[in-house]
Write a structure and sequence with these properties.
Elements (H helix, E strand, L loop, with lengths): L7 H23 L7 E3 L5 E3 H17 L4 E4 H6 L5 H4 L3 E9 L1 H5 L6 E8 L2 E9 L4 E6 L3 E4 L20 E2 L12 H12 L9 H9 L5 E4 L4 H15 L5 E2 L19 E4 L2 H11 L2
Parallel strand pairs: 3-4, 9-10
Antiparallel strand pairs: 1-2, 4-5, 5-6, 6-7, 7-8, 10-12, 11-12
């Protein structure tokens, strides 16, 4: 049974917040970004003043939509990992990636966006993907499906035939150098076969949109960070009518349980069961 809080009215309010923060903070910084606005986090990744300010605004505004709702943002987690307990607590929790693709944002390469998920009792029930420069977006509600910003339902014909020689996806070998063999070697071989002519956007929000739109057929990642994947995984599972991401070694479906960084495993996400079977077989050989 779908949660009664998951309504068009809720989604419209979330879109207003996303678009307002994107225009007033994210794009404002993007158009006038300076070196002093860019910083390096303890984990060596990049963060900008826009990430921090946008997350604070999202936290305030989204928190007002559902009284008593908890929040976990990427930057808040970096500052205090204890906020992860909000994910497992009873009730609702917003999960926020204020700027997904910060490296692209900081170097003015485009391909960045906003990822928002709504979690209830530890399970994603709502998700929003927004490509900020292109102003395009999708949302999903658990047991209701996937929709564009105007509430048009997204459908995918998973029964149509596909040509194995034309499969393409995202599996950048540089992300898997620390994985043990044979995973590292298998990912590299698979990348050589299926990813040679594919431009990797280096942003989860764009990767998930490409899966939804049939631009690509699969994504391989070595992390399960909630702010990167909770919204997108919900969308793929709603269209697939089955769990989205599956780990190669553990054969586990995507969930919010730690560890979020996979050290000896990778996660495969695809819409088509036949593509999933093919990619998993290549990675498990």
């Amino acid at each position: 049974m779908t949660d009664p809080i998951l309504t068009k009215e809720l989604s419209d309010k979330v879109w207003l917040i996303i678009e307002d923060v994107s225009e007033c903070i994210i794009m404002s910084y993007y158009n006038s970004l300076k070196h002093e606005h860019i910083h390096t986090k303890a984990n060596s990744s990049i963060v900008t003043d826009a990430d921090v300010l946008a997350e604070k605004e999202f936290t305030k505004l989204l928190g007002q939509l559902i009284p008593g709702c908890k929040v976990m943002g990427e930057e808040a987690y970096e500052a205090n990992p204890d906020v992860a307990k909000n994910l497992k607590s009873k009730g609702y929790c917003w999960v926020i990636d204020p700027i997904d693709g910060t490296a692209n944002f900081a170097t003015k390469k485009g391909n960045f966006g906003v990822l928002i998920a709504l979690v209830k009792d530890g399970q994603p029930i709502g998700g929003w993907l927004y490509d900020v420069p292109q102003k395009r977006g999708y949302y999903a509600f658990k047991d209701q499906g996937v929709f564009d910003k105007d509430h048009n339902k997204v459908s995918v014909d998973l029964s149509s035939p596909f040509d194995e020689t034309k499969i393409k996806g995202y599996a950048n070998p540089k992300y898997f150098q620390r994985c043990p063999d044979p995973i590292r070697k298998n990912v590299t071989d698979l990348s050589d076969e299926f990813c040679k002519n594919v431009f990797d956007p280096y942003a989860s929000v764009i990767q998930y949109m490409d899966l939804l739109n049939g631009v690509t057929d699969f994504v391989i990642t070595n992390n399960q960070m909630p702010w990167d994947h909770a919204a997108g995984q919900l969308m793929i599972s709603e269209l697939k009518k089955a769990p989205a991401g599956i780990s190669v070694v553990g054969n586990k479906t995507y969930n919010l349980e730690k560890p979020w960084r996979l050290k000896e495993d990778v996660m495969v996400t695809t819409l088509r069961p036949k593509v999933e079977k093919l990619i998993l077989s290549r990675l498990r050989k």
